[in-house]
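SAMPLE LOG
Freezer: B-3
Tube label: C17
Construct: single chain, 119 aa
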Amino acid sequence: QVQLVESGGGLVQVGGSLTLSCAASGNTFRLNMIGWYRQAPGKQRERVATISSVGIANYADSVQGRFTILRDNAKNTLYLQMNSLKLEDTAVYYCKGFVPQGTALGDYWGQGTQVTVSS
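STRUCTURE (predicted):
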C-alpha cells in the first residue's frame, strides 16, 4: 500500500505564504502523485491544483497566479507553494495520488494539513 503524509500547514496572515509538502512511502513504484485538494468547513472538497505525468499543471481559477504545484519524482514528494494567501484559502489541504495497476491499485489521500489565514 501507499501512505501520503502532508506537512507545512499552519497559521498565516492575509498576504502571507506557505509551502505544503506531501511525502509518499510504501509501494510507490507505480504511484502517480497528481494533485492538491482542499476542504473548508461546511463545504465540499475541491480541486486546487493538479499536475500531469509530464509535468503540466492545472489550477483552480481561485488560486491561479498565486499557487504553484511542483513534483519531485525522485523523492516521491509533491509541493504546493502558496503566495498572497486570502481568508478564503483557509481549509484542510489534502494531496492525492493513484496507482493505475498492480497490487497497490487505487486512489490514495493524505490525512490533510490545516491552513488558516487570518486578517
